[in-house]
Each structure stands twice: as structure tokens, then as C-alpha cells.
Amino acid sequence: MAGQLSFSDAEYLGKRKLTRREVFLAEMDRVVPWGKLHAVIEPHYPKAGNGRRPYELATMLRIHCLQQWYALSDPAMEEELYENASMRRFVGLSLATGSVPDETTILNFRHLLERHGLARQIFEAVRAHLSAHGLLLRAGTIVDATIISAPSSTKNEAGERDPEMHQTKKGNQWYFG
Fold first, then answer.
1. Helices 118-132/34-41 angle, 10° precision
2. How crowded is the C-beta side of 149, counted as CA atoms within 13 Å?
3. Residue 5 in this model has a pLDDT that exceeds 80
4. Predicted pLDDT of residue 172
5. Residue 116: is it exposed, middle or buried by C-beta count within 10 angstroms (0-12/13-18/19+)?
6. Cα angle vertex 43, ends 136, 91, to 5°?
7. With helix as H, strand as E and coil as C, how does 49-69 read?
């Protein structure tokens, strides 16, 4: 962010405690090889002069990363940029000195990455960079297991419980399912 600070930016900078999000974003700012990622995307990124001036590549890439890290849709990402000062600072935006990309602009950037197969290249560049520094990055899925109750029914032909169903305890409550 260049130029004069807005009142909200100045107030934000004056606070004492860093949030977990701010600590995480500072770490990502430090470990992600931004220059390598820019080099992957830059040949495909729109240049100024053909219509509305595009947002800085660095800003859009950081927005895309935030979407991935926090599982945000395009509209949710736009709202977070308006509401969350730490995210705005991370991507290099200020409400006082510029506008926030709308959800369509965010969508178009994601489509650009998809159209040119750049998401995989970005992942591989980050993985290789972190691996060279002794860190590991893998694609994966987080599964949220929710306990639901089921009747301990013995109303089948054999009159027995389903052998694949078990009971578990959560707190002081027992569940069967």
C-alpha cells in the first residue's frame, strides 16, 4: 500500500495484538515464492490498454490464495476484502486509496488460471519451493465427521444388529450408528 493511510488503516496499525489470521498471513507472505508464481501467470495476464485497467497481478494472485486457504466463494471473498482489514493488507488494498475487486473480477481471474492450467503449475511451484526448504505440501481433503444417532434396530430377518454399526461416546452421551 503506497500513499497516505486512511483513518481505519492507521487505527488498525496501532493495535497491539496480532490475530492468528495475521500471523498466518505474515508467514504465507514470507514462505510463498510470489515471484515464481507471478512468472507462471504473467504471460497470460491481461495487459493495460485493452479496456478497463486490470488489478495488479500480485493483488489478484493473493486474493486467489486467500480463497483457497479459507475456502471462500467469489462473493464471500469480495465481502471479506471489504470487512477484513488483515486480508485487505495482505493483498495490498486500502479502501481509502482504491477499490476492491468485485466478485466477477475474482471469478474471471480464477477462470484465467483454469483456462491455462495454471493452478497445477502454481501448486507445483509452491510445493517445490517448500520442499527445498524442508517443508511438505500436499493436496488433500478435510473430512468433518458428524455423529448422528440411529436406532439400535434389531428388526431384520436375523434379529441382530448391523455388524457395521457401532456405538461411540461424545461427552457423557452414547450414540449408536
1. 160
2. 5
3. no
4. 73
5. middle
6. 60
7. CCCCCCCCHHHHHHHHHHHHH
Residues 6+ apart with CB under 8 A from 86: 19, 21, 22, 25
pLDDT digits (tens, 9 = 90+) for 30-43: 989 999 999 999 99
Set of cell numbers at residue 86: 488483515
Q: What's the rounded Cα separation, in Å, for the pair 113 and 8?
A: 33
Quote the strand ranges of the chain, DSSP E: 167-170, 173-176
Percent of the chain topping pLDDT 70: 72
C-beta of residue 18 within 8 angstroms of C-beta of residue 27: no
* Coil, helix or strand at residue 81: helix
Give the least confident one: 65-69, 117-121, 147-151, 160-164: 147-151
* Cβ neighbours, 10 Å, residue 122: 20
* pLDDT (0 to 100) of residue 1: 44
Q: Taking a C-beta distance cutoff of 8 angstroms, is the pair 92, 62 a contact?
A: yes
